[in-house]
Amino acid sequence: MIGKLSKISGLTLAVLLAGVAGCKDKKGDTTPKDTSADTGIPKVDPTLCDTNGKNVVTYDLNHDNKPDVWRLYKNEDEGGTKVEFMTCKQVDFDHDGRKDWVVAYNRKGNPLFERADFDYDGKWDMSAIYDTKTNVLAEVERDTDFDGKFDVKEVYDTSGALTSVRRDRNNDGQPDLWEQYKDTILLAILYDDDFDGKVDRRDEIPGARPKVEMPTTEDPTASGGLDDKSKPAPAPAPAPKK
After folding, report:
1. Considering the domain boundaries, does residue 236 fall inside one?
2. pLDDT at residue 121 tops 50
3. Residue 226 lies in a domain
4. How many Å separate Cα 93 from the centre of its chain?
5. What is the structure's pLDDT at 27?
6. What is the phi/psi pair of residue 224, to 5°?
7. 91 touches 104 (CB < 8 A)
8. Biggest alpha carbon–alpha carbon distance for the chain
9. 208 Cβ partners below 8 Å, 6+ apart?
10. Which domain, by its residues, includes 163?
11. Over 60: is that where the pLDDT of 131 sits?
12. pLDDT band at 39, cuts 50/70/90?
């Protein structure tokens, strides 16, 4: 399925990761089991989004007389008119008192960041950041094996198109596989098979367009890992006639 294989030696991860942070551990628990001592009712978590000056509206999804959804609203004056907009939403899907999903919004209702705990273990399994100018997805980190560490990082361009995916296969906190995309097309995969900080081989997808040279001195995850100014790869020499 994957065609031409070429080896790159001596290319360090320091070069590959210039300007891009490595995979990392999660930032602690999603939220503690927040139960007020006097009421026994879970409250909105101020560590997940700013609660200062916000109006909190709650919803009870399972009708146990305890809130499961918290929506935070902010009031602003706009030309003499009072305008209210939602700034954050927190949700406890499994009703254990911990927040399993949180989304923050800007004034226009576009998401700023999003986090989710898919297996309800109190650890974030997905963390997404949105571009504040284009309002499209910019970066996503995932914990695909639910071990408490992010092992996949996806990077998107300003149009929301996927440009690169970095994977940590041995759970050492450092990427060792890079998928490179151009115009949403997978062009190549780089591997550090012995996890020594050097790229050992490269798989190039046959028939991928546009056809460009893979960079050897630049971060392959930046801008999809491809230099748009690179020259097309030279055509193979014709086989000698017999």
Report:
1. no
2. yes
3. no
4. 22
5. 53
6. 80, 5
7. no
8. 92
9. 182, 185, 186, 187, 188
10. 1-28+123-211
11. yes
12. low
Token pair for residue 31?
């939220």
Q: How far is Cα 27 from Cα 141, in angstroms, rounded to an integer?
A: 12
Q: Do 35 and 22 belong together in one domain?
A: no
Q: Extract long-range pairs of 148-154: CB within 8 Å, 24+ residues apart.
A: 148/25, 148/26, 148/123, 149/23, 149/24, 149/25, 149/26, 149/173, 150/23, 150/24, 150/25, 150/26, 151/23, 152/23, 153/23
Helix, strand, or coil (residue 167): strand
11, 219 Cβ separation under 8 angstroms = no
Asked whether residue 238 is domain-assigned, the answer is no
Place of tokens 């759970």: 171
Q: Residue 51's CB: how many other CB atoms inside 10 A? A: 18
Instruction: State the pTM of this model.
Output: 0.71
Report if residue 65 sits inside a domain. Answer: yes
**Secondary structure of residue 165 in the 3-state scheme:** strand
The answer to whether residues 110 and 188 belong to one domain is: no
Q: How far apart are CA 194 and CA 70, in angstroms?
A: 47
The two three-digit tokens of residue 44, written as one number: 């909105």
Contact 40, 133 (CB under 8 A): no
